[in-house]
């Protein structure tokens, strides 16, 4: 009696576990600096053991962890993917000075140039981090104390002798180009604050009825075709130049000077030829990719480098980098091994080839039916796209109808069901002749093959007339 009671108690304790049903999951959690892959974004219900994938937000890049979470009995596993902001990194060395960073060199942040004592900054005092890297002209620190930069007065005659900075106390006298007149002080002085006092004047157009062209002057310099150069900004608005006056040219964005003078001269009403030659800037290698490589159209300004992963690996990040004025745009993408989800389970089937995660490219699994007939592919494998080569097969019970042939009987199978591959032998009753095969078998589509025979009454010939 005691043994019976103990057995009932064990059964009661075991019953709830044996009847437990796996629970579905609701929409996956949100994590900082990540986003759920688009194909899962609108779904609100996920089945047990189903997996979903995350990626990093824009302006962020993955630096460790897995992209996958899985639904386990109504709860999602924790996402281990960690994303960090894209950083431009170190801006380089500033001779005779140093760079001071606004933050961690993230997109939108600035780096400021600070010169050592006794040196003066030339150019903008900052650069900005963009997706293509540090943007802006690289500053420089020149030897000397407080100075004033050469003032840019449009439509004035520049007589600075190539001086880019002036010492405190030095004066500048301005003369306007032909067709323009001064509006403001003709002379200005560099003061101790590094500013010109009074402010430099403007050169404004002289009314048409007062213009007196000088002999030998030149008009606007003719454009230079197919040279990748352009007239310096300070000369763009001028329409007249005196004889002996020079204008200067710069290389277009993405090009660098490769020889020849940057200036041309107005000589008695004619412009001398421009000798400046500009070539495309060189970006060099875009870097190395583990389990992949870059395919280049070239390594100069305007060219592209496209990342191609080895077979069985999938690209994460932007595939294409562009050779820009400041080097290659963006960052190198990553080639991750193609991973398939766990192979689908099939009712009444056994799976061989199961392994611990992950199922990578060329992993193979095989199905075999414990009961019924396998319909579909017996063997499937993980493709280079991270998907299984075919849907999972099914184990179906396939039967053929009873082989009812009039005037006949059959042998070979005495089960109530005629399953796939069942074979029977048909014989006609006495006095009947068979038309068709005497042996048939049950095919996987539930038909007898070959077709069932027919039994026809034997005809007797009267030999006596």
Written account of the structure:
This protein is mainly beta. It folds into six domains: 22-85, Complement Module, domain 1; 119-210, Complement Module, domain 1 (Ribbon); 229-280, Complement Module, domain 1 (Ribbon); 292-337, Complement Module, domain 1; 339-396, Complement Module, domain 1, CATH 2.10.70.10; 399-457, Complement Module, domain 1, CATH 2.10.70. The chain is 4% helix and 37% strand. It has a four-stranded antiparallel sheet with strand order 1-2-4-5, with no helix packed on it. A four-stranded antiparallel sheet has the order 7-8-10-11, with no helix packed on it. A four-stranded antiparallel sheet has the order 20-21-23-24, with no helix packed on it. A hairpin with a 2-residue loop joins strand 29 (320-324) and strand 30 (327-328). The longest helix is centred in the N-terminal third of the chain and has 17 residues, at 2-18. The model is unreliable at 1-18 (pLDDT under 50).
